[in-house]
Sequence to fold (628 residues):
Amino acid sequence: MDLDKSLDELEIIAALLHDVSNAHGLVFNIRASKLTFNKVAKRTRAEGISFLTKTMPNLGKAFSKALAGNAPLNSAELGFKPQPGSKLPIFLGELFNEVLRPDGRPLEHPCAQCVKAIRNVLYCFYKYKLPYSDEQEQAVISQFEKTEEDLKTLSPHLQAIEASVDNSTSVYRSRFKTASQIEVAREAKRLLAEVFSLFDPKNIAPKHGPGAVATKQKLHEKYLWTNVSAKIASVYPVDEFYFVNLGHLCDRLDAFHRITDCDLPARVILVPKDSRGPRLISAEPVDFQWIQQGLQAAIVKLVESHPLTKGNVFFTDQCPNRLGALVGSRAGRYSTLDLNEASDRVSVDLVRLLFPKEVFTFLESCRTSSTELPDGRVLELRKFAPMGSALCFPILALTIWSILTAAAPNADTRERILVYGDDVIVPAGYTADAIEQLESFGLKVNRDKSCTSGLFRESCGMDAFQGIDVTPVRLKTVWSSTRRPDVYSSWIAYANSYYDRQCFTTYDTIVRKLVSVYGPIPSQDQIQSGLCLRDSSGCASGIRTRWNKHLHRREFRVLQITSPSVTKVIDGWSMLLRFFAESANGRPTESPDVLRNEGSVGPIEDLPPFSVSKYTSRGTSLLVRRWR
Fold:
């Protein structure tokens, strides 16, 4: 790879190293900064940008494992020349020496600020969304298929446990020894039965999600029903859940082809994740997705309010897990567990085993049993719901919670279990049993990313060491000198993140790059909403201003992101169905929150009113100048 193609990335690394030198000048001086940058530039010239996106992050991962007590750091195994008589690398060696001993294990009193500096440099481009190769794509698909084979092998074991639980009459669980798998399964089943005791699976408000569907309809086409699976229709009647009323069904009867006995498969699609490869998503058939979304919303509402789960299982708030990681890093009282392929390893047999039968009937009715791979092959699924199904996240979280809570030795341990998807926090003394119990039911704990000893913890985006937040800024959106809404919004956010971490040279470097392409950018003390910088000293000159005599405020003419609406007129019944579906679920498609997620962050009064004939197309965001 030509070095010129990586100049933008190297410029960021140079600025980061300068900030490290400013903060740790007694350890990492200007000379060390220059020598380190020369090494980065040399290896990037020889190895390409993969040195920044893969090699450096690999050193960062090994460093995290050493901090967590999983394995000592050995730089030679990672392609970095070690210091004489030491396993620590020469690369950033001045900082590593403040944290680790020569044998690669943590010092008695390591410097947490040096940990933060090392991670900021090593993980800078870890999440960079570069194009992925055919080999990376095939590797993801192959792993998806391999997991299915693993679940098929596990299926007889789970079915045998189910039979034992159903035939068991004992409700006694020994409290003087580790619970057996049958005891755990029986208790988990009881816990979930209590959670769902007053739950009505039919009391839902179906809706469409924003993503792609296997049947490839656009959003405005999703309300024109032509086929519905007989499996769903048997528990969610078509006239009650797919049409406004009987008049709607009668008027659409000619276009509504049939209730089909043959379920359509889901469709595997690969979406960009980062430089390591794509993420596999399963696009669900539109009739399945409609019910899944409504059922998901009902389950989330139940779990976040039920006395058994509301303080332990979370779907909309990551703060408890983030705080748990921070607290756990102070004295090691809590462990953070990370699961491999978590959504793909919750098998349908496991869900059938744990969830109440009356609830499982409804869950299974909107579960796709097969998926079409990119090469056209149809793969039968043993997993309950792959990523892409609206039920994937809540069923995964409840499965993990029920197993860990059922196996917990006492009430105190139960109360301290936190679950957010596949991010899990457990008391340190319960760690070994927790891992054993999860894996006995077919889940797989990633021991390399789980933090079970030492004073490093990570959960829900919080990386903590000795009670200090050491989360690095991970750049994702690839820089472009061409004006692009996603680049503009993302890199303003990156600049502000560096500012908050007192990396002012890196902040100034990014701001200069932004101003050279997009012109003057306001600061947060100039505008109350919209895209703005923490501090725009020296880069805000030239912004047009005016006094708004109606609102009695000074306004600035600045760039904002908007997503233009597309008008699609469909039949009145379908528009009425859309109105009822989105009103029942709280927010219409063009709600302020959704538009903000897509980049439009202007005042509420500037947002278009909700219309059942207007839609926002993905990938159509525009940069426009508005008064703020």
